[in-house]
Specification:
Strand order of the largest sheet of chain A: 2-1-3-4
Number of domains of chain A: 2
Number of strands of chain A: 4
Strand content of chain A: 5-15%
Radius of gyration of chain A: 18 Å
Oligomer: homodimer
Largest sheet of chain A: 4 strands, mixed
Chain lengths: 239, 239
């Protein structure tokens, strides 16, 4: 998982028997969604990290868009798009079902993910300047999650243990403290407004699947800064 | 289905026993996706049309975003977002499964829908002016579908009968001839480049579910023009 990111001129390591291959980038929140699902369901897999600034030619045969995450099966089939991968894995591997069993609840959770999908776009706008201040939109979307968690009155959105909704939104919560460090004047989250989410965030940090890929805020900041300088250091965690 | 569109000050008719309620707008391609799935699976439902330019207050209690489509169950539960509705209906009502049974094929079809989702945005740009000419992007995306249909060598993407992929992309193909009438100089589709898709489009028009909501190009044009003039005539088909 913390292997060197492969760029142009590299060779894709052969697939391992009985394992899925996840193509990832160690700091990509979308790729982290796939990691979390694979780890939560304990699906045997290996990881190949892709240097997104200098993508290997062979990667476009796996994902024509060149984005991460993608997963490759032993059959050679490849699929991409983080939510499609997450749904595929939950459908194909019945152990520890992450989606709610009730189709209405499953649909409602997917609607919440759809609402959530505006947050990354607005966070991006916040950092890269925009005519309209997107912070209000971010806070309004977070209100929805605070309210939902209060209504559900459970530790996680998924109940006693994290479910699909918890995992697919987690990567952005993991980065909140890093956002605060990078842009303290722009990224102002009134903590008393999100009491439940704050508790949830602390509890999520203790989850076994979350622990596998968890990166400390300072390291996220280091990556952000390298990325902003135009020379993204993907290999910060390589030993 | 061709009832008057309800606006502010209207009353929402009571739900009917044993039926789902679909909130729609007669010319909305996203709402048409929900119609197609309901009709293909023969799920009992009624339709309430929403005047999108003057939404009734009660509609925001069904969908806080105020968009169509949304479906309401007898339980009072509501869900929205066309693809989430489509997946929900296919999961909840087992008759005539529209998604492929094989999870990999299902994921691959969903990836194609994801690729397709850029087309409506680019069509919008084409009509509303944009710095870059979006036609090339539209044609490149259509190439993908032409190639896929050639590879599958079946009448429909779903095989001998239309499946989910066929239905969720159909509404934009139904409107292609109208786009050509509205903007003949901009919307230029080289027909020899899309032979398979052209055949597919003609065959789709004969499908029973497609026939239920099918609107002729001239009527679509009438709606477009009223919409562009700032006074959308939702009720063209009301008798």
């Amino acid at each position: 998982m913390n292997e060197k990111h492969l760029g142009k001129g590299s060779t894709n390591p052969p697939l391992s028997k009985g394992k899925l291959r996840l193509y990832s980038m160690r700091f990509c929140p979308y790729a982290q969604r796939a990691h979390l699902v694979l780890d939560a369901k304990k699906i045997p897999h290996d990881v190949v990290n892709i240097k997104l600034s200098d993508k290997p030619d062979w990667y476009f045969e796996r994902n024509p868009l060149g984005k991460v995450p993608a997963i490759e099966m032993e059959s050679g089939d490849c699929i991409y798009e983080s939510l499609i991968i997450a749904d595929y894995l939950d459908e194909k591997y019945p152990q520890r079902l992450l989606h709610p069993k009730d189709p209405i609840q499953k649909a409602k959770d997917r609607i919440l993910v759809e609402h959530f999908s505006k947050i990354p776009t607005n966070v991006y706008k916040l950092f890269h300047g925009s005519d309209i201040d997107p912070l209000d939109d971010i806070l309004t979307d977070l209100d929805l999650f605070e309210k939902e968690l209060t209504l559900r009155a459970t530790r996680f959105f998924g109940g006693d243990v994290p479910g699909m909704l918890d995992y697919v939104i987690w990567p952005w919560f993991e980065r909140i403290d890093a956002f605060k460090i990078v842009a303290p004047e722009k990224f102002v989250i009134p903590s008393e407004r999100y009491k439940k989410l704050k508790e949830w965030k602390e509890t999520m940090k203790e989850d076994d699947a979350v622990k596998v890929t968890y990166i400390k805020p300072e390291i996220h900041v280091q990556f952000f800064n390298s990325y902003k300088s135009g020379n993204a250091n993907y290999d910060i965690l390589v030993k």
